[in-house]
Amino acid sequence: MQQIIRRFLVFTVALAMPALAMADGEIDSANTAWILTSTALVLFMTLPGLALFYGGLVRSKNVLSILMQCFAIACMSSIIWFVLGYSLAFTEGSSLIGGLSKVLLVGVDVNSVSGDIPESVFIMFQMTFAIITPALIIGGFAERMRFSAVLLFSAIWLLAVYVPVTHWVWGGGWLGEMGLLDYAGGTVVHITAGVGALVAALVLGPRKGFGETAMPPHNMTMTITGAGMLWVGWFGFNAGSALAANGDAGMAMLVTHLSASAGAFTWLVIEWIRYGKPSALGAVTGMVAGLGTITPASGFVGPGGALVIGVSAGIICFYATMTMKQVLKIDDSLDVFPVHGVGGILGTFMAGIFVSSELGVFSGNGLADGMTIAGQVGVQLTGIIAVLVYTAIVTFIILKVVGLLVTLRVSDEEETEGLDVIAHNERGYDL
After folding, report:
1. How many other CB atoms are there within 10 angstroms of residue 369's CB atom?
2. Which residue(s) pair with 118 in the sheet?
3. Domains and CATH numbers, the chain
4. What value does the mean pLDDT take over residues 151-174?
5. Torsion (CA) 194, 138, 196, 155 in degrees, nearest 10
6. How many Cα atoms within 13 Å fall on the side-chain side of residue 320?
7. Model-level pTM?
8. 3-class secondary structure, 414
9. 359 band by pLDDT with thresholds 50, 70 and 90
10. What is the structure's pLDDT at 365?
11. Pairwise CA distance, residues 133 & 138, whole Å
Protein backbone atom coordinates (compact mmCIF):
# COMPACT_ATOMS: atom_id res chain seq x y z
CA MET A 1 0.00 0.00 0.00
CA GLN A 2 2.84 2.37 0.88
CA GLN A 3 4.50 1.61 -2.47
CA ILE A 4 1.31 2.54 -4.34
CA ILE A 5 1.01 5.80 -2.41
CA ARG A 6 4.68 6.58 -3.06
CA ARG A 7 4.27 6.04 -6.82
CA PHE A 8 1.17 8.24 -6.88
CA LEU A 9 3.01 11.07 -5.13
CA VAL A 10 5.96 10.81 -7.53
CA PHE A 11 3.57 10.91 -10.51
CA THR A 12 1.75 13.95 -9.08
CA VAL A 13 4.98 15.86 -8.46
CA ALA A 14 6.14 15.03 -12.00
CA LEU A 15 2.98 16.61 -13.38
CA ALA A 16 3.15 19.71 -11.23
CA MET A 17 6.87 20.56 -11.51
CA PRO A 18 8.97 21.13 -14.64
CA ALA A 19 11.62 18.53 -15.27
CA LEU A 20 15.27 19.48 -15.14
CA ALA A 21 16.36 17.72 -18.30
CA MET A 22 16.88 19.89 -21.36
CA ALA A 23 15.12 18.81 -24.56
CA ASP A 24 16.97 18.68 -27.83
CA GLY A 25 16.66 21.73 -30.08
CA GLU A 26 16.97 25.47 -29.58
CA ILE A 27 14.12 27.94 -29.36
CA ASP A 28 13.79 30.64 -32.03
CA SER A 29 12.53 33.76 -30.27
CA ALA A 30 11.01 35.36 -33.38
CA ASN A 31 9.06 32.24 -34.31
CA THR A 32 7.93 31.78 -30.73
CA ALA A 33 6.69 35.37 -30.52
CA TRP A 34 4.69 34.96 -33.73
CA ILE A 35 3.05 31.69 -32.65
CA LEU A 36 2.22 33.18 -29.25
CA THR A 37 0.51 36.02 -31.11
CA SER A 38 -1.22 33.62 -33.49
CA THR A 39 -2.48 31.55 -30.58
CA ALA A 40 -4.12 34.60 -29.03
CA LEU A 41 -5.64 35.50 -32.43
CA VAL A 42 -7.17 32.04 -32.93
CA LEU A 43 -8.64 32.01 -29.42
CA PHE A 44 -9.99 35.50 -30.19
CA MET A 45 -11.84 33.93 -33.13
CA THR A 46 -13.98 31.86 -30.75
CA LEU A 47 -14.15 34.23 -27.80
CA PRO A 48 -15.54 36.68 -28.64
CA GLY A 49 -15.52 36.45 -32.47
CA LEU A 50 -17.61 33.36 -33.23
CA ALA A 51 -19.77 33.90 -30.14
CA LEU A 52 -20.80 37.38 -31.33
CA PHE A 53 -21.12 36.31 -34.96
CA TYR A 54 -23.47 33.45 -34.08
CA GLY A 55 -25.14 35.36 -31.25
CA GLY A 56 -26.37 38.11 -33.55
CA LEU A 57 -27.78 35.61 -36.05
CA VAL A 58 -30.22 33.90 -33.67
CA ARG A 59 -33.40 35.33 -32.18
CA SER A 60 -33.05 37.54 -29.11
CA LYS A 61 -34.51 34.88 -26.79
CA ASN A 62 -31.57 32.58 -27.61
CA VAL A 63 -28.61 34.95 -27.81
CA LEU A 64 -27.29 34.20 -24.32
CA SER A 65 -27.50 30.44 -24.93
CA ILE A 66 -25.25 30.74 -27.99
CA LEU A 67 -22.71 32.88 -26.13
CA MET A 68 -22.78 30.43 -23.24
CA GLN A 69 -22.30 27.41 -25.50
CA CYS A 70 -19.22 28.97 -27.12
CA PHE A 71 -17.80 29.89 -23.71
CA ALA A 72 -18.47 26.50 -22.12
CA ILE A 73 -17.12 24.55 -25.13
CA ALA A 74 -13.91 26.62 -25.00
CA CYS A 75 -13.40 25.69 -21.34
CA MET A 76 -14.32 22.02 -21.75
CA SER A 77 -12.27 21.50 -24.93
CA SER A 78 -9.19 22.99 -23.27
CA ILE A 79 -9.38 20.49 -20.42
CA ILE A 80 -9.96 17.56 -22.78
CA TRP A 81 -6.99 18.65 -24.90
CA PHE A 82 -4.78 18.73 -21.79
CA VAL A 83 -5.95 15.38 -20.46
CA LEU A 84 -6.03 13.28 -23.61
CA GLY A 85 -6.57 15.16 -26.87
CA TYR A 86 -3.05 16.41 -27.55
CA SER A 87 -1.45 13.05 -26.89
CA LEU A 88 -3.86 11.17 -29.17
CA ALA A 89 -3.52 13.75 -31.94
CA PHE A 90 0.21 14.48 -32.01
CA THR A 91 2.24 11.71 -30.40
CA GLU A 92 3.58 8.64 -32.15
CA GLY A 93 1.07 5.85 -32.52
CA SER A 94 -0.57 4.11 -35.45
CA SER A 95 -1.63 5.60 -38.78
CA LEU A 96 -5.13 6.09 -37.32
CA ILE A 97 -4.54 7.51 -33.84
CA GLY A 98 -1.68 8.72 -31.67
CA GLY A 99 -0.40 7.22 -28.46
CA LEU A 100 -0.80 7.88 -24.73
CA SER A 101 2.75 9.01 -23.99
CA LYS A 102 1.68 12.59 -23.23
CA VAL A 103 -1.59 12.03 -21.41
CA LEU A 104 -1.97 14.90 -18.90
CA LEU A 105 1.00 16.44 -20.78
CA VAL A 106 3.43 14.24 -18.87
CA GLY A 107 7.00 15.15 -19.80
CA VAL A 108 6.11 18.61 -21.14
CA ASP A 109 8.03 21.32 -19.28
CA VAL A 110 9.51 24.77 -19.89
CA ASN A 111 12.42 23.22 -21.80
CA SER A 112 10.38 20.98 -24.11
CA VAL A 113 10.71 21.96 -27.76
CA SER A 114 8.55 21.28 -30.81
CA GLY A 115 10.59 22.23 -33.84
CA ASP A 116 12.11 25.54 -32.79
CA ILE A 117 9.30 26.78 -30.54
CA PRO A 118 8.42 25.68 -26.99
CA GLU A 119 6.17 22.62 -27.02
CA SER A 120 3.86 24.42 -24.61
CA VAL A 121 3.26 27.07 -27.28
CA PHE A 122 2.57 24.43 -29.94
CA ILE A 123 0.15 22.65 -27.59
CA MET A 124 -1.69 25.87 -26.86
CA PHE A 125 -1.81 26.85 -30.54
CA GLN A 126 -3.32 23.50 -31.49
CA MET A 127 -5.67 23.72 -28.50
CA THR A 128 -7.30 26.81 -30.00
CA PHE A 129 -8.13 24.79 -33.13
CA ALA A 130 -9.66 22.09 -30.94
CA ILE A 131 -11.75 24.81 -29.26
CA ILE A 132 -13.21 26.46 -32.35
CA THR A 133 -14.07 23.30 -34.32
CA PRO A 134 -16.81 21.91 -32.04
CA ALA A 135 -17.94 25.49 -31.39
CA LEU A 136 -18.60 25.92 -35.11
CA ILE A 137 -21.00 22.96 -35.05
CA ILE A 138 -23.49 24.63 -32.69
CA GLY A 139 -24.70 26.72 -35.62
CA GLY A 140 -26.27 23.58 -37.08
CA PHE A 141 -28.56 22.97 -34.10
CA ALA A 142 -28.87 26.50 -32.72
CA GLU A 143 -32.00 27.36 -30.72
CA ARG A 144 -33.15 23.79 -30.06
CA MET A 145 -30.57 21.50 -28.37
CA ARG A 146 -30.44 21.16 -24.60
CA PHE A 147 -27.33 22.59 -22.95
CA SER A 148 -26.45 19.26 -21.31
CA ALA A 149 -26.69 17.53 -24.69
CA VAL A 150 -24.52 20.23 -26.31
CA LEU A 151 -21.72 19.66 -23.80
CA LEU A 152 -21.89 15.86 -23.88
CA PHE A 153 -22.03 15.75 -27.67
CA SER A 154 -19.18 18.24 -28.05
CA ALA A 155 -16.91 16.36 -25.63
CA ILE A 156 -17.40 12.97 -27.30
CA TRP A 157 -17.21 14.48 -30.80
CA LEU A 158 -13.92 16.19 -30.02
CA LEU A 159 -12.31 12.90 -29.02
CA ALA A 160 -14.02 10.63 -31.56
CA VAL A 161 -13.90 12.85 -34.66
CA TYR A 162 -11.64 15.88 -34.34
CA VAL A 163 -8.69 14.18 -32.62
CA PRO A 164 -8.41 11.18 -35.02
CA VAL A 165 -8.75 13.36 -38.13
CA THR A 166 -6.11 15.73 -36.75
CA HIS A 167 -3.76 12.78 -36.34
CA TRP A 168 -4.53 11.52 -39.85
CA VAL A 169 -3.57 14.87 -41.40
CA TRP A 170 -1.09 16.62 -39.09
CA GLY A 171 0.01 14.07 -36.50
CA GLY A 172 1.79 11.53 -38.69
CA GLY A 173 -1.30 9.60 -39.79
CA TRP A 174 -2.21 8.03 -43.09
CA LEU A 175 -3.51 11.11 -44.93
CA GLY A 176 -0.41 13.11 -44.08
CA GLU A 177 1.78 10.23 -45.23
CA MET A 178 -0.21 10.06 -48.47
CA GLY A 179 0.62 13.72 -49.13
CA LEU A 180 -2.70 15.46 -48.44
CA LEU A 181 -2.40 19.23 -48.64
CA ASP A 182 -4.27 20.83 -45.75
CA TYR A 183 -2.32 23.79 -44.49
CA ALA A 184 -4.60 25.07 -41.74
CA GLY A 185 -7.70 22.89 -41.50
CA GLY A 186 -9.84 22.43 -44.59
CA THR A 187 -10.43 18.79 -43.67
CA VAL A 188 -9.50 18.90 -39.99
CA VAL A 189 -11.67 21.89 -39.08
CA HIS A 190 -14.09 22.89 -41.81
CA ILE A 191 -15.22 19.59 -43.34
CA THR A 192 -15.54 17.95 -39.91
CA ALA A 193 -17.48 20.90 -38.45
CA GLY A 194 -19.65 21.33 -41.54
CA VAL A 195 -20.58 17.67 -41.82
CA GLY A 196 -21.08 17.41 -38.07
CA ALA A 197 -23.50 20.36 -38.17
CA LEU A 198 -25.40 18.89 -41.13
CA VAL A 199 -25.87 15.51 -39.43
CA ALA A 200 -26.96 17.22 -36.20
CA ALA A 201 -29.48 19.35 -38.08
CA LEU A 202 -30.93 16.25 -39.75
CA VAL A 203 -31.11 14.21 -36.53
CA LEU A 204 -32.73 16.99 -34.46
CA GLY A 205 -35.04 18.23 -37.20
CA PRO A 206 -35.91 21.83 -38.01
CA ARG A 207 -36.84 24.56 -35.56
CA LYS A 208 -40.49 25.04 -34.79
CA GLY A 209 -41.95 27.14 -37.60
CA PHE A 210 -38.97 26.73 -39.94
CA GLY A 211 -40.03 27.59 -43.49
CA GLU A 212 -43.27 29.14 -42.29
CA THR A 213 -42.21 31.82 -39.82
CA ALA A 214 -39.51 34.40 -40.51
CA MET A 215 -36.47 33.93 -38.27
CA PRO A 216 -34.21 36.89 -39.13
CA PRO A 217 -31.03 37.73 -37.20
CA HIS A 218 -31.90 39.78 -34.14
CA ASN A 219 -28.75 41.94 -34.07
CA MET A 220 -26.71 42.43 -37.24
CA THR A 221 -24.45 44.93 -35.49
CA MET A 222 -23.32 42.12 -33.17
CA THR A 223 -22.87 39.76 -36.12
CA ILE A 224 -20.76 42.19 -38.14
CA THR A 225 -18.63 42.94 -35.08
CA GLY A 226 -18.02 39.22 -34.61
CA ALA A 227 -17.30 38.82 -38.33
CA GLY A 228 -14.59 41.49 -38.15
CA MET A 229 -13.01 39.66 -35.23
CA LEU A 230 -13.10 36.40 -37.19
CA TRP A 231 -11.41 38.06 -40.17
CA VAL A 232 -8.55 39.43 -38.05
CA GLY A 233 -8.25 36.25 -35.99
CA TRP A 234 -8.04 34.14 -39.14
CA PHE A 235 -4.58 35.58 -39.83
CA GLY A 236 -3.39 33.67 -36.78
CA PHE A 237 -5.30 30.61 -37.95
CA ASN A 238 -3.68 30.46 -41.40
CA ALA A 239 -0.44 32.43 -41.16
CA GLY A 240 0.27 30.93 -37.75
CA SER A 241 0.12 27.47 -39.27
CA ALA A 242 3.53 28.15 -40.82
CA LEU A 243 4.80 27.73 -37.23
CA ALA A 244 7.42 30.34 -38.08
CA ALA A 245 7.76 34.05 -38.77
CA ASN A 246 8.82 33.66 -42.39
CA GLY A 247 7.80 34.07 -46.01
CA ASP A 248 5.32 31.21 -45.83
CA ALA A 249 3.47 32.98 -43.03
CA GLY A 250 3.52 36.25 -44.96
CA MET A 251 2.10 34.66 -48.11
CA ALA A 252 -0.52 32.77 -46.11
CA MET A 253 -1.67 36.04 -44.56
CA LEU A 254 -1.84 37.79 -47.95
CA VAL A 255 -3.81 35.04 -49.68
CA THR A 256 -6.14 34.72 -46.68
CA HIS A 257 -7.05 38.40 -46.90
CA LEU A 258 -7.50 38.32 -50.67
CA SER A 259 -9.80 35.29 -50.54
CA ALA A 260 -11.91 36.79 -47.76
CA SER A 261 -12.26 40.03 -49.71
CA ALA A 262 -13.14 38.22 -52.95
CA GLY A 263 -15.65 35.95 -51.21
CA ALA A 264 -17.43 38.84 -49.50
CA PHE A 265 -17.55 41.03 -52.59
CA THR A 266 -18.71 38.19 -54.85
CA TRP A 267 -21.54 37.25 -52.47
CA LEU A 268 -22.85 40.80 -52.18
CA VAL A 269 -22.69 41.30 -55.97
CA ILE A 270 -24.76 38.14 -56.48
CA GLU A 271 -27.34 39.42 -53.99
CA TRP A 272 -27.34 42.83 -55.66
CA ILE A 273 -28.11 41.25 -59.04
CA ARG A 274 -30.71 38.77 -57.73
CA TYR A 275 -32.53 40.88 -55.16
CA GLY A 276 -31.76 44.48 -56.09
CA LYS A 277 -29.93 45.20 -52.83
CA PRO A 278 -26.77 43.78 -51.24
CA SER A 279 -27.10 42.75 -47.59
CA ALA A 280 -24.70 43.04 -44.69
CA LEU A 281 -25.51 39.44 -43.81
CA GLY A 282 -24.49 38.36 -47.32
CA ALA A 283 -21.22 40.28 -47.13
CA VAL A 284 -20.11 38.70 -43.85
CA THR A 285 -21.27 35.23 -44.91
CA GLY A 286 -19.27 35.55 -48.13
CA MET A 287 -16.29 36.66 -46.08
CA VAL A 288 -16.47 33.54 -43.91
CA ALA A 289 -16.88 31.40 -47.04
CA GLY A 290 -13.75 32.95 -48.54
CA LEU A 291 -11.81 32.42 -45.33
CA GLY A 292 -12.90 28.82 -44.87
CA THR A 293 -12.17 27.95 -48.49
CA ILE A 294 -8.66 29.41 -48.55
CA THR A 295 -7.73 27.76 -45.25
CA PRO A 296 -6.48 24.39 -46.60
CA ALA A 297 -4.72 26.07 -49.53
CA SER A 298 -3.31 29.11 -47.73
CA GLY A 299 0.25 27.82 -47.51
CA PHE A 300 0.34 26.37 -51.01
CA VAL A 301 -1.14 28.95 -53.42
CA GLY A 302 -0.23 32.40 -54.66
CA PRO A 303 -2.28 35.61 -54.76
CA GLY A 304 -3.83 34.82 -58.16
CA GLY A 305 -4.98 31.43 -56.97
CA ALA A 306 -6.36 33.01 -53.81
CA LEU A 307 -8.48 35.41 -55.86
CA VAL A 308 -9.95 32.55 -57.89
CA ILE A 309 -10.59 30.55 -54.71
CA GLY A 310 -12.34 33.50 -53.04
CA VAL A 311 -14.59 34.20 -56.03
CA SER A 312 -15.40 30.49 -56.34
CA ALA A 313 -16.26 30.37 -52.63
CA GLY A 314 -18.59 33.33 -52.98
CA ILE A 315 -20.46 31.74 -55.87
CA ILE A 316 -20.57 28.08 -54.83
CA CYS A 317 -21.24 28.65 -51.12
CA PHE A 318 -24.01 31.14 -51.98
CA TYR A 319 -25.88 28.61 -54.10
CA ALA A 320 -25.18 25.82 -51.59
CA THR A 321 -26.84 27.94 -48.91
CA MET A 322 -29.87 28.63 -51.09
CA THR A 323 -30.17 24.95 -51.98
CA MET A 324 -30.02 23.82 -48.35
CA LYS A 325 -32.75 26.16 -47.19
CA GLN A 326 -35.06 26.51 -50.20
CA VAL A 327 -34.75 23.16 -51.99
CA LEU A 328 -33.70 20.59 -49.39
CA LYS A 329 -35.49 22.38 -46.52
CA ILE A 330 -32.72 21.46 -44.07
CA ASP A 331 -32.53 23.73 -41.03
CA ASP A 332 -28.78 24.07 -40.67
CA SER A 333 -29.65 27.17 -38.69
CA LEU A 334 -26.51 29.27 -39.21
CA ASP A 335 -25.35 27.74 -42.53
CA VAL A 336 -22.44 25.77 -41.15
CA PHE A 337 -22.37 23.06 -43.83
CA PRO A 338 -22.94 25.22 -46.95
CA VAL A 339 -20.29 27.72 -45.79
CA HIS A 340 -17.71 25.72 -43.81
CA GLY A 341 -18.36 22.22 -45.13
CA VAL A 342 -18.69 23.15 -48.79
CA GLY A 343 -15.91 25.73 -48.44
CA GLY A 344 -13.59 23.17 -46.86
CA ILE A 345 -14.31 20.67 -49.63
CA LEU A 346 -13.79 23.27 -52.35
CA GLY A 347 -10.60 24.66 -50.84
CA THR A 348 -9.06 21.25 -50.22
CA PHE A 349 -9.77 20.29 -53.83
CA MET A 350 -8.43 23.55 -55.29
CA ALA A 351 -5.25 23.34 -53.21
CA GLY A 352 -4.30 20.34 -55.33
CA ILE A 353 -4.64 22.40 -58.49
CA PHE A 354 -3.11 25.76 -57.59
CA VAL A 355 -0.12 24.32 -55.73
CA SER A 356 1.45 23.60 -59.12
CA SER A 357 4.20 25.95 -60.24
CA GLU A 358 3.10 25.36 -63.83
CA LEU A 359 0.12 27.72 -63.51
CA GLY A 360 2.00 31.01 -63.65
CA VAL A 361 0.35 33.87 -61.73
CA PHE A 362 -2.02 31.39 -60.06
CA SER A 363 0.72 29.02 -58.89
CA GLY A 364 1.91 28.17 -55.42
CA ASN A 365 4.93 26.42 -53.94
CA GLY A 366 5.14 23.66 -56.54
CA LEU A 367 4.19 20.01 -56.42
CA ALA A 368 6.21 17.50 -54.41
CA ASP A 369 8.80 15.45 -56.28
CA GLY A 370 7.15 12.81 -58.45
CA MET A 371 3.64 14.21 -57.92
CA THR A 372 1.52 15.33 -60.88
CA ILE A 373 -1.50 17.63 -60.69
CA ALA A 374 -3.76 14.65 -61.38
CA GLY A 375 -2.06 12.62 -58.67
CA GLN A 376 -2.32 15.45 -56.15
CA VAL A 377 -6.00 16.04 -56.95
CA GLY A 378 -6.56 12.31 -56.42
CA VAL A 379 -4.97 12.54 -52.98
CA GLN A 380 -7.08 15.59 -52.16
CA LEU A 381 -10.29 13.80 -53.17
CA THR A 382 -9.30 10.78 -51.09
CA GLY A 383 -8.87 13.02 -48.05
CA ILE A 384 -12.16 14.82 -48.66
CA ILE A 385 -14.18 11.61 -49.03
CA ALA A 386 -12.52 9.84 -46.10
CA VAL A 387 -13.03 12.72 -43.68
CA LEU A 388 -16.58 13.40 -44.89
CA VAL A 389 -17.74 9.79 -44.59
CA TYR A 390 -15.99 9.16 -41.26
CA THR A 391 -17.36 12.36 -39.73
CA ALA A 392 -20.92 11.69 -40.92
CA ILE A 393 -21.03 8.13 -39.57
CA VAL A 394 -19.39 8.84 -36.22
CA THR A 395 -21.38 12.04 -35.63
CA PHE A 396 -24.63 10.15 -36.24
CA ILE A 397 -23.60 7.44 -33.76
CA ILE A 398 -22.58 10.02 -31.15
CA LEU A 399 -25.93 11.81 -31.40
CA LYS A 400 -27.82 8.55 -30.98
CA VAL A 401 -25.73 7.59 -27.94
CA VAL A 402 -26.11 11.04 -26.38
CA GLY A 403 -29.84 10.81 -27.03
CA LEU A 404 -29.96 7.64 -24.92
CA LEU A 405 -28.20 9.39 -22.04
CA VAL A 406 -29.96 12.78 -22.04
CA THR A 407 -32.79 14.41 -23.95
CA LEU A 408 -31.32 15.97 -27.10
CA ARG A 409 -33.96 18.57 -27.88
CA VAL A 410 -36.01 20.99 -25.82
CA SER A 411 -39.79 20.71 -25.91
CA ASP A 412 -41.94 22.86 -28.21
CA GLU A 413 -43.00 24.99 -25.24
CA GLU A 414 -39.40 25.49 -24.12
CA GLU A 415 -38.32 26.34 -27.67
CA THR A 416 -41.07 28.96 -27.85
CA GLU A 417 -39.97 30.52 -24.57
CA GLY A 418 -36.31 30.55 -25.60
CA LEU A 419 -33.18 28.80 -24.36
CA ASP A 420 -31.84 31.80 -22.43
CA VAL A 421 -34.46 31.41 -19.71
CA ILE A 422 -34.96 27.65 -20.03
CA ALA A 423 -31.28 26.67 -19.86
CA HIS A 424 -29.73 29.47 -17.81
CA ASN A 425 -32.55 31.35 -16.06
CA GLU A 426 -31.12 34.56 -17.51
CA ARG A 427 -31.84 36.85 -20.43
CA GLY A 428 -29.46 38.22 -23.01
CA TYR A 429 -31.15 41.60 -22.75
CA ASP A 430 -32.84 43.24 -19.77
CA LEU A 431 -33.89 46.63 -21.13
Report:
1. 5
2. 113
3. 35-218+226-420 (1.10.3430.10)
4. 98
5. 130
6. 25
7. 0.93
8. helix
9. low
10. 76
11. 10
